[in-house]
Structure formats: C-alpha cells, structure tokens
C-alpha cells in the first residue's frame, strides 16, 4: 500500500472513536495488528494494539504512545496507521491490562 497520498490525521482527530479498529502496518506494509481501544485523546493518548492471534483470538494487547504511530486516511476514508515497529517487537512488549 502506498501511504504517500493518504491524508494524515490532525491531533484533534486522534479520538478513541475514530482510531478504534484501525489496522496497524509495520515495515514493508506488513499488517501487524489493530487498535483495540485508546486511553485519552490527542498527542497524549495511549493506543492499545492487539498483536498476533487470528481473527482476534489469542491476540496480545500492548500499549504504545499515539506519537509512535502515523495515523492517516486512505482513498476510501479508512483510518489506519504506520509504524516502524515489527510484529515481533510489539509481541515482545509487556502485555497491557486495563
């Protein structure tokens, strides 16, 4: 997927309802997880990403700062994010517990 033409979200758009269920892409556009939920909003938010598993079963939730993700909309208006982390790096993070 070519993200160059996608529209970056502004800080005011970084709201839990908009980011929920967004796909997270890592290096080489690998689908590495999806947003489970968000704590807070704007630049101070923590994004909880479900990593691994299959169809949501067995996924490990990890918390990352929203600043480590580049959220954008594609041509169809779908919100997704890009990060430099790999799936394995996210899996190595501590599991998030609400």
UniProtKB/TrEMBL annotation:
Query: One of this protein's Pfam families, by short name?
Result: PRC
Q: Which InterPro entries match?
A: PRC-brl_dom (IPR027275), PRC_barrel-like_sf (IPR011033)
Q: What is this protein called?
A: PRC-barrel domain-containing protein
This protein's source sits in the domain of life called: Bacteria
Identify the residues that the record assigns to the PRC-barrel domain, covering every copy: 23-75
Q: Which SUPFAM superfamilies match?
A: PRC-barrel domain
